[in-house]
Queue: 2 jobs
Job 1
Amino acid sequence: MFTTRSPETELDPIAEHPRITVLGVGYLGATHAVCMAALGFEVLGVDVDQQKIQELSSGRVPFFEPGLQEKLSEVLRTGRLAFTTDLDAAVRFGDVHFICVGTPQSIDSDAADLTFVERAFEALASRARRKALLVGKSTVPIGTAERLTAMVNTRSPIGEALELAWNPEFLREGFAVDDTLHPDRLVFGVASGWAERQLRAVYAPMLRRGTPLVVADLATAELVKVAANSFLATKISYINAMAEVCEATGADVDRLAEALSHDERIGGKFLKPGLGFGGGCLPKDLRAFAHRAEELGVGRAVAFLHEIDDINTRRRFRFVDLVRDLAGGDLHGARVAALGAAFKPNSDDVRDAPALDVARMLALEGADVVVYDPEANENAHRTYPDLDYAGSLAEAVTKADVVALLTEWDEFGRADPNELGALVNARRIVDGRHALDADAYREAGWIFRALGQPTEPVGMITREAQAVN
Ligand code: UGA
């Protein structure tokens, strides 16, 4: 189904249309493979997981990502995208190989576990027979690309003809397709003009549209990614630290965030208070960055990241305090409806999810927890099989003593407080994501609590004052 490379282009595959392989077809890799094929490239997705490859080949995305399923079906029909477990075939096929395998947190430390990345580069290098570019997309500690370059040069039968570049990815789960097709910037970490030209060919459709491009050395490209994620995490923890101060003073963190957001230098994005950040990226990137900085002797420069992490974790404990208070001071035997398990809405990802962690903490204190997430129940059940899971919002809240809103799915925001009120045992709710209409709940007779908000509603007073102004 794919075109064949002519001998000339095999010698120097700088083509208008480089052929692309994507190693590791998880959230990042599958989206990248599908989107590159949608842009007109011939793409081969590779993974060691036979089942994942089978599912993707038959047109099924093995995780929840809005819009990806449709795009996959669309590009499979063009014949430009295929999936395989055959690495030799991938090496023969590709001019540019994107490495998108995971870099999870190590089991015994804060460092990133680079086993999968190292394996992927080594496997490609040892099989290479013609010039090609290996492009790392996985988030890695600074200095990894330089180390891998040395390894690749040694392992590759064609030596330095196999080049390495780093091209960090900034897509958000839930918006992965759009972020990949319309990135806000591109970053190329390259060691040669040839590598840059290859990447320019791959991203030509975006560059033609005027997408900003930063060309940098390998270390800077690696650093951009962890610096960006650490900054985002810092912003979230900043507003959550303010929520802690609000709790001690009776101030309202939502009004505070709103007021801050009008300052263009601060901005309102990533200033949403609540249960804080989770997922497969922000928490582990923050920790791996601090760990790497310490190794490099600049630990003090980013020592504040430990505090950012701590602020984030403290929110979960504080949330449990609020639920316990509403349950009358003791969670034993209290039925708690845990609304949400995913680390954020529009995702079924439960990696380091604040929601699921809180559900677990509540259960550990003796609460009878019933979890409902519109998409993540299955993944959550796999992680914590001991919790109870409901098939619907109504089922989850039925007879609940306290309702805990943990992930801000639209379905929860749209729910009618009166209808929910008719199902619960007691109208008590804690909004961990500042996603609900507090006044509507209070008017419907609910006791309503949120992190960083005063116990008594002051919203009416403020709005009256606003009206006068
Ligand atoms: C994050 C970055 O936003 C992406 O740019 C990056 O590419 C990605 O990590 C990655 O490294 O691959 P993602 O993990 O999909 O993306 O999720 P975010 O939308 O950043 O949300 C992270 C967490 O922060 C979620 O748990 C969310 O609920 C929380 N959050 C976000 C807040 O608590 N408050 C906010 O104001 C914003």
Job 2
Amino acid sequence: MKSPTNGISVASSGETTGAAFDGALQGFSKLPRDERFRRLVAIGALTESEAQALKAGGLKDTTLAENFIENVIGYFQIPLGVATNFRIDGRDVVIPLAVEETSIVAAASKTAKWVRESGEIKTESLGHLIIGQIQVARVRNFDRFEAQVLAAKSDLINSANTDVAFGLVARGGGVEDIQVRKVDRGDGTFMAVVHVLADPCDAMGANIINQVCEYLKGPIESLTGDTVTMCILSNLVDTKLTRATVTINDIDEDLAQRIVEASLFSQVDPYRAATNNKGVMNGIDPILIATGNDWRAVEAGVHAYASRSGSYRSITKWSYMGGQLMGVLEAPIVVGTVGGVTKLHPTAQMSLNMLGVKSAAELSRICAAVGLVQNLGALKALTTVGIIEGHMKLHIRNLTLGAGASEREVPLVQKRLEEILMMTKRISLQNAVEVLREIRGDLRVDLRVDLRAPSKTESGTVT
Ligand code: MEV
């Protein structure tokens, strides 16, 4: 079928074919905003009404916000962009990213193009169970407690599924297992911790697992005579991991070795691991935000998982063999595609439609893929030109506006700042203020301005 508007061919299923996809999103960053919408609609990533809603500025009426949180006074808007060039498990997909940091979208799109042309991205899910915890802090006899709970395991699972998780059971999920852990209190004595394992289907599952654990509190206390201290889900969901693998073929050996060395750095040094993983989350958090998912939960889980060996490590690992660079990311990325904000927020729904995901597991796999690609982009930049060049090139516009340049002055200031960046390899707001002063030939611009918090008058003069 041909799009009536621009001749971009779209497969009759509504899914854009590879070649058409490539063509439609070529040079996307250089297109005017209206044309970006036109192309996204043409390939089926957005509907016409979604495009109109975005053009109109998204949500304004705070009724929805009142349903989400308390003491609402408005919305905090952050930019929503799309990363292009992603082909994940053989499927072309446009990635919505809600993020404020310069160069994340550009780096993701650029690195995805490299992978698309020279390699591939594959993903898989490892496990499907989330974890709820029931703590018995002062267990009187751990062995007896464990034996009593395990002997009643089937009854506890059945009653939790019948009385609480029946909706999940109807969708093919529900509570599947109960385990008992002996946890050292740090003083030579032990607490008992019951783990309740459940399949949340396409929900993130926090509410349901918390309800199940609170429901099981009564039966466990009657069964054992011990007192339950607290019940809550765990964000360290090592029973539901997601893995992404990226390969690049025929890579320059020197570049590959540099990336491998950078990867080793992040596996053996927690100071580097933290920054490496922050870069990975640069690819993951913006998808979580765009789709209305709980990014704090994923962050907590990822960092706890990164510490599972006893020291904090990278969640990605790159190796080079036989001319091929291969990266792997493995982490708990527990997300939902139904329920809560995901369902109610129109932009979250739009983002999910754009991704074309059919399950929460698929969304999680896309997050892992984008996180790994983002990591590759960062490592490539860090081990070659450095991060400043690309980042600051894109940051120049922010500096220009921060210095108070008017629309007319922006291109002139930007051009001059790019030259300074090329020459000195660094650039600051002070440079922008100085360039603006030169351009205006106007000494009224006060260079003693507080550079941390520039304020602008209507005319754009820094005050
Ligand atoms: C910056 O937001 C992210 C990086 O620091 C990631 C990394 O160092 O790998 C560039």
